[in-house]
Amino acid sequence: MKIAIASGKGGTGKTTLSTNLASLLADKDNVVLCDLDVEEPNSGLFISGELFHQEDKHKMIPEWEKDECILCGNCQKVCNFNAVMKLGEMIMVFPELCHGCYACSELCPTKSLPMKPKKMGELKHYKLGNLEFIESRLIIGEEQAVPLIGQTIKYVDENFGESTLKLFDAPPGTSCPVIEATKDADLILLVTEPTPFGLHDLKLAVETMNELKKPYGVVINRFGIGDAKVEEYCTENDIAIVAKIPNNRKIAELYSSGKLLYNELPEVKIELEKVIGFIQRQRENL
Amino acid sequence: MAKKGEKVKILLTAKGTEWDSKMDPRFGRTEFFFIYDEETEKVETYDNRAIVNEAHGAGPKTAQKMSEFGVDVLITGNGPGGNAAAVVTQTGTKVYVGAGDMTVKEAYDAYKNGKLK
Amino acid sequence: MKEIVIISGKGGTGKTSVTASLAYLAGKSIIVADCDVDAADMHLLMKPVNDRKEDFFSGVLAEIDQDKCIKCGKCSNVCRWKAIPIVENKYVVQPLDCEGCGYCSLVCPTDAISMNEQNVGNWIISDVKTNTQMVHARLGIGAENSGKLVAKVKNEAKVLAEKSEKDFIVVDGSPGIGCPVVSSLSGANLVVLVTEPSVSGIHDVKRVYELVKKFGIKAGCIINKADINPDKVKEIHQFLETENIQLIAEIPYDENFTKAMTMGKTIVEYDPDGIGEILKNSWEKIRKI
C-alpha cells in the first residue's frame, strides 16, 4: 500500500509525521520511507541507517554530433521549450530547458542529436532494521523536480513488493511535483496547522486531491495554537481528522536537533497510533 | 574582436527606440534592440517584446536574434544569464554592463569613454 | 529602485510572516510582490482590495480531434509520458500527464492534434492596507510551476514600482531550489534568507544559498525561532561568517506570530514593542545594505 504525506503549505510537519510514523511502524513491520521532496530532502536528517545502495539518476538530453548534420534547423523548429538552437554553423542544446521529449532527436533527418544521459540527481537507499529509507536529491542548478520524483518512485516499485507499506514524503504545494509524487498513492495524509495560512493552503491541497480522486485524511499539527477554523472546515466538508498533534515547544526543540519525538513525548505517540489505526482501516477497505 | 578606433556595430538593450530612451537593464527580456552601426552611422531598432510569451529560454532566444543582426558589441545593464551568455560567447560579441540606469545616448557615451565594465 | 527577495529554502521558517512585516514597515515606499505562487499567503496579512485580475497562459496541452483521428496510435507511441492511453476505444490525452512538448502533433498523419494554450492561473494587482500595491498570483491545480508566472509577477511589480517611483520592491520568494526560485532570484539586488536553528533549516538554507551564490547576489540572514536551539544558532553563525552573509536579526520563538496571523495582522501591528521592534531594526538594516 502506498501512502503519500502532503500539504499545501510548507513547514506544517510532513517530514516530522513521515519520519516518526515510519520509525514507529518499523518497530513491528517492514516499512519503506521514501523522501520525494527532491529539492530539499530532509527526512534523512532524522533517520540514521546504513547506506545500502546509491545510484546517480539521469535525464536524457540530446547531444549534437556535427559530422552528419546538415544544419537544417528542424531540431530548433520542433522544440517547444527553446532548448535547442541553431546558431550559425552549430547546434546548441540547453540541458536545463530540455524536457526529454525526444522529438528533436527522433525527427532529425541525419540522426545528429542522439539522446545521452545527463546526471540530474542522486538516489540513496539506507536500511535500519525493518525500515528501508530512500531519498533522492536534485543537483543544484537542475530546475525540474518531476523527472527525478518519477524515477525514484520507479525504484521503489521495482525493489519492494505490493504488500509492503510504503510512505512517501511529498514536496509541499499543489503544482506538478506534488501531482507526480501523489498520483499513484492509495491514500493521502494532508498535514496542516490550525492557522489562516494552514487553512488557506489546506483548501488548495484538498482541491488537488479531489481532482486526483484520491482518498485522504487530515492531520492537524501544532494543535492548540491559532483558531478552530481548520477543524470547522474539515467537519463541514466531511473530511476525516485523523490525528491532532499538540503544540509543544519541546517538539520544536527535539525536531531542531534531528531527533524523533514519540519516545520522549507520549502524547505524540498516541496521535501517531491514531494515524496507524486509520491506515489499517483503509488497508482493509482496499 | 574590435580594436580601439575600429568602427563596430553596437546593440543596446532599451525600453524605446530613440537615443533618449531609457536603457533596459535586462538582456533576455529586453523590450527593444537599439542597434547603432558606427560605420554607416545608421540606427536600426527591433521590437523584442514578443519574448514575454516565452516561458523558458527567453535569454538564449534573444541572444540568437541578436546574432542575426551581426552585432560586435552588446551594451546592457545586468548582463546575460547562464544560457544566454553561452550563446553570446559563441557569437564572439563583446559585452559591456553597468548601463542599466542610463539613457541609450548616455550608455553609448559611457562605453566610448571606457566607463562601462 | 532596488529589488529585495526573501527566501528560505525550507517552508515554515516564517518567511511570509517576516516579509509581510517588512512590507508593513516599508509602507508606501515599496511595491509588494508575492512570488510564492504555488501557496500564496501574503494576502492573508496584507488584505488586498480592488483586484485587477488577468489570466495567465503558460505552456500548451495536446488535444485530439476525434473526428479526424484514424486511431493509428503514432501519438501514443512517441509520447514519453504515456499521456495518450486508450480510453473507451479512443485515444485521449490525459491533461495532468501531458507535458506540452508537441511531438504527438508533429507525427499525427491526419493533423488531428492541436496544441492549445493553457490558462494556468491568474496574476493580480491589488491595493493593500499599507497604502500601496501588491502584485500576486494564483497558480491552478497541478500546473507546471514554471518561472514564467513568477517572472510575470516580478515584472509587473517592477513596472509599477518604476511608474510610481518607489524605492524598493519586496518579494516573498518561493521555497525550494527549482525553477520558481531561480525566477524569484533573477534581477534581485539583495536576498534575505529567513531560517531557523534546526537541522532541516540549516540544511535547506545552505542548499538554497548555493543558488544565490551562483547568481552573485548579496545576502543577509534573519534567524527565526532563535532560542529553540543555541547550538544550532552557533552553527548558523559559522556558516554566515564563512560565506560573508550579514546577520540581520535573531527573532525568538514567539507564539505572538501565530496570534497575530490569526487576527490577520503582521507581528509588527500586534506586538510593536517586542518582536515588532526587532523587525523595525531589521528593515532599517536592510534598506541600507
Task: Summarize the structure in words.
The complex is a heterotrimer of chains A (286), B (117) and C (289). Chain A is 34% helix and 27% strand. Chain A has nine helices and eleven strands. Chain A has helices at 14-26, 74-78, 103-106, 146-159, 176-182, 196-212, 229-236, 249-256, 266-285; strands spanning 2-6, 31-35, 50-62, 84-87, 90-93, 115-128, 131-138, 165-169, 187-192, 216-223, 241-246. In chain A, helix 1 crosses helix 9 (266-285) and helix 4 runs parallel beside helix 5 (176-182). Chain A is elongated, with a radius of gyration of 22 Å. Chain B has a five-stranded mixed beta sheet, with helices on one face. With 289 residues, chain C is α/β, with parallel strands linked by helices. In chain C, helix 1 packs across helix 11. The chains are: A alpha/beta (286), B alpha/beta (117), C alpha/beta (289). Chains in contact: A-B, A-C, B-C. At the A-C interface, helix 5, helix 6 and helix 8 of A face helix 7 and helix 9 of C.
Helix content of chain A: 25-40%
The main sheet of chain B comes to: 5 strands, mixed
Q: Mind summarizing the main beta sheet of chain A?
A: 9 strands, mixed
Please work out how many helical segments of chain B DSSP would assign: 3
Give the integer mean of the pLDDT values of chain B: 86
Q: Low-confidence runs of chain A (pLDDT<50, min 5 residues)? A: none
Query: In order across it, which strands form the biggest sheet of chain A?
Result: 3-6-7-2-8-1-9-10-11
| DSSP strand tally of chain A | 11
Largest interface, C-beta closer than 8 angstroms, per-chain residues:
A-C, 59 and 59 residues
The number of helical runs of chain A is 9
Sheet-strand content of chain B, in percent, reads 15-25%
What is the H/E order of chain A?
Answer: EHEEHEEHEEHEHEHEHEHH
Q: Per the principal axes of the C-alpha atoms, what is the gross shape of chain A?
A: elongated
Give the structural class of chain A. Answer: alpha/beta
What is the fold's blueprint, element by element?
The complex is a heterotrimer of chains A (about 290), B (about 120) and C (about 290).
Chain A: E1 2-6, H1 14-26, E2 31-35, E3 50-62, H2 74-78, E4 84-87, E5 90-93, H3 103-106, E6 115-128, E7 131-138, H4 146-159, E8 165-169, H5 176-182, E9 187-192, H6 196-212, E10 216-223, H7 229-236, E11 241-246, H8 249-256, H9 266-285
Parallel strand pairs in A: 1-8, 1-9, 2-7, 2-8, 9-10, 10-11
Antiparallel strand pairs in A: 3-6, 4-5, 6-7
Chain B: E1 9-14, E2 32-37, E3 42-47, H1 58-68, E4 73-75, H2 82-91, E5 94-96, H3 104-112
Parallel strand pairs in B: 1-4, 4-5
Antiparallel strand pairs in B: 1-2, 2-3
Helix pairs in contact in B: 1-2
Chain C: E1 2-7, H1 15-26, E2 30-34, H2 43-46, E3 49-64, H3 74-78, E4 86-87, E5 90-91, H4 103-107, E6 113-127, E7 133-139, H5 147-163, E8 168-172, H6 179-185, E9 190-195, H7 199-215, E10 218-223, H8 230-243, E11 246-250, H9 256-262, H10 267-270, H11 275-288
Parallel strand pairs in C: 1-8, 1-9, 2-7, 2-8, 9-10, 10-11
Antiparallel strand pairs in C: 3-6, 4-5, 6-7
Helix pairs in contact in C: 1-11, 5-6
